[in-house]
Write a structure and sequence with these properties.
heterodimer; A: about 85% helix; B: about 280 residues; four-stranded antiparallel beta sheet; binds adenosine-5'-triphosphate; binds magnesium ion; membrane (chain A); MetI-like_sf (chain A); cell membrane (chain A); transmembrane helix (chain A); ABC transporter permease (chain A)
Chain lengths: ~280, ~280
């Protein structure tokens, strides 16, 4: 009697679950269709705005010309030369900056005196719009990749430092008390409680930092460089080739989304406990 | 446990002024006293800036193996006294001894548990149970053996790989209980460990704890708002009064052991003790 009841209940659960699943699948199909429709509408507005003479082609080019540019840019292999510069600068700035930022954030959370001494300076640097330092970095490090890496680093470093530090200080007070009552040494508390507790916040910082690393590299290239996506954007704007500018923006957005997606994947793997 | 452990405690003296109380005359407790709280004061910085006396001249001796319950109105200093026993908070005045050693900080022979489970969300149930063992450097296979045994005792074998977010409140509290038992403390300090649970789960966990405790007869101090829980589990009951926090009753229950936490509530002796304390609390 009880068994049969529970098996009915299970079956009922299974039915609703599969219904819910198919409902979810159909919703996402609908959503995807609508998204596609929205994209097509956007491109159509763009196309006809030029075609019917509302906006001069000189300002916004056309979808076809942009697609054509992208095709040539990719097929001609030019994209890979630029990519190798921009991606290199982004990844270097990101990795060095985030390692340095995380380590400093953790050290400052551990050594409170150092934190108290340094915190006004750090807030000062952090408040400074560091993109404004780009001309200086180019003066100091030249027009090669170094100046862009330094710019990306300066952005990434502070973002990860601030996030790591905040995460390492936010440990739940009940959990801290439990660890203390359990007889954890301060080293054990740090390694087994504070550090894991900070990881979600560190990841939030990393995701933001990845986008900013790309920003640093591109802005640096726009100011002075011989290669890279940023450099090409400047070049095409100065030569009034708007299709080229738009094409590069598409490339940048795609890369940025890909980068963010990788961060999300890594986060999901590491934070499986955080449903 | 010889029933006369309620020794003369000068708690009434605090009523005069408390300032010139004899807290300087501290003595090392004798052999079989597991916890000795001697003329302890706790003075906090109040919210209006003036000092606030949360605990005034409290002295308690808990013989080894005794199960002591502390009850009293909210804010009367129960948690504060427990935290001073645990070495989590230093007394403003007076001394606390655990196993004849003055408490200077948390001791590894004590197991502390409170109403919030404080599980580590990134650890599975089993890894949470093993937390204290890990801190003590117990090798992995021994840890595993003990955590499995304890999870079985609290009825969570099937959930050893579940994360806290996947467990109900009662299950999480059981994991916390298993974590406290895992380190096999000499002294249990429990601050409303079952308060966050529904009546049924609460009764179940109380019974589980009673069973685990009956095997070992470790010294235990239980702070609770639940009078029935206090009488059902403890050998001796302290009633605290508020403003300032102090002891207003110290009573042995003399209920039989081993006992069944559920059915003991229907014994006439139980009712007598519970009513006496209830009336005292209500008259305050
Ligand atoms: N860190 C603190 N700073 C200032 N005042 C405090 C602090 N901790 C506790 N108090 C005060 O001390 C008094 C006793 O607090 P305590 O937590 O010991 O009460 P309690 O008996 O455990 O109450 P409850 O039953 O509600 O848990 C309260 O009035 C509280 O406001
Ligand atoms: Mg309390």
């Amino acid at each position: 009697m009880v068994a049969s009841k529970s098996s009915t209940a299970n079956r009922a659960d299974a039915v609703t679950a599969s219904q819910a699943e198919s409902k979810k699948a159909s919703t996402s199909l609908l959503v995807w269709t609508l998204r596609l429709g929205f994209l097509v509408a956007l491109l159509a507005v763009w196309h006809y705005a030029v075609q019917w003479g509302y906006v001069p082609e000189f300002y916004i080019s056309t979808p076809t010309k942009t697609a054509l540019f992208l095709w040539k840019y990719i097929a001609g292999g030019e994209i890979f030369v630029d990519a190798s510069y921009t991606i290199y600068e982004t990844l270097m700035g990101f990795s060095i900056g985030s390692v340095a930022g995380i380590v400093s954030g953790l050290l400052l959370a551990r050594f409170t005196t150092a934190d108290r001494v340094l915190s006004p300076f750090l807030s000062g640097f952090n408040a400074l719009p560091r993109v404004a330092l780009a001309p200086l970095f180019i003066l100091w490090f030249g027009i090669g990749t170094e100046s862009k890496i330094v710019l990306a680093f300066s952005l990434v470093f502070f973002i990860t430092l601030v996030n790591t530090n905040a995460g390492a200080r936010a440990t739940d007070s009940d959990i801290m008390m439990m660890a203390r009552a359990m007889g954890a040494t301060s080293r054990q508390t740090y390694l087994k409680v504070v550090l894991p507790y900070a990881i979600p916040s560190i990841f939030a910082g990393l995701r933001l930092a990845a986008v900013y690393a790309l920003l640093g590299a591109v802005v640096g290239e726009m100011l002075a460089a011989q290669h890279g996506w940023g450099r090409q954007i400047t070049y095409y704007s100065q030569t009034f080739e708007v299709a080229g500018v738009f094409g590069l923006l598409v490339v940048l957005a795609t890369f940025s989304i890909g980068l963010n997606y990788l961060m999300v994947l890594a986060e999901q793997r590491l934070l499986r406990w955080k449903q | 446990m010889d029933g006369n452990s309620a020794k003369a405690i000068p708690y009434e003296s605090a009523d005069s002024s408390g300032v010139k109380s004899p807290s300087a005359v501290s003595r090392k407790p004798s052999g079989d006293i597991a916890i000795s709280v001697q003329n302890v004061f706790q003075i906090f910085k109040g919210h209006e800036g003036k000092p606030f006396t949360a605990v005034e001249d409290v002295s308690i001796d808990v013989p080894a193996g005794q199960f002591l319950a502390i009850v009293g109105p909210s804010g009367c200093g129960k948690t504060t006294v427990l935290n001073m026993m645990a070495g989590l908070v230093a007394p403003s005045k007076g001394q606390v001894y655990l196993n004849n050693e003055e408490v200077k900080g948390p001791s590894r022979s004590m197991g502390y548990m409170f109403a919030r489970d404080a599980l580590l969300p990134w650890r599975t149930a089993r890894d949470n149970v093993e937390f204290g063992l890990e801190l003590r450097g117990v090798p992995a296979d021994a840890r595993r053996a003990r955590s499995q045994k304890l999870l079985k005792l609290v009825g969570l074998s099937k959930f050893e790989n579940a994360y806290p977010s996947q467990l109900s409140q009662g299950m999480r509290q059981r994991v916390a209980l298993a974590r406290t038992m895992a380190i096999e403390p000499d002294i249990f300090l429990l601050d409303e460990p079952f308060a966050a649970l529904d009546a049924q789960t609460k009764l179940q966990l109380e019974s589980e704890f009673e069973l685990l405790w009956q095997d070992t007869h470790k010294t235990a101090v239980l702070v609770t708002h639940d009078l029935d829980e206090a009488v059902a589990l403890a050998d001796r009951i302290l009633v605290f009064g508020a403003n300032p926090g102090r002891i207003i009753l110290d009573r042995m229950t003399n209920l039989p052991r081993p006992r069944n936490v559920e059915s003991i509530r229907y014994m006439p002796e139980f009712q007598v003790v519970a009513r006496e304390i209830w009336e005292l609390l209500r008259s305050k």
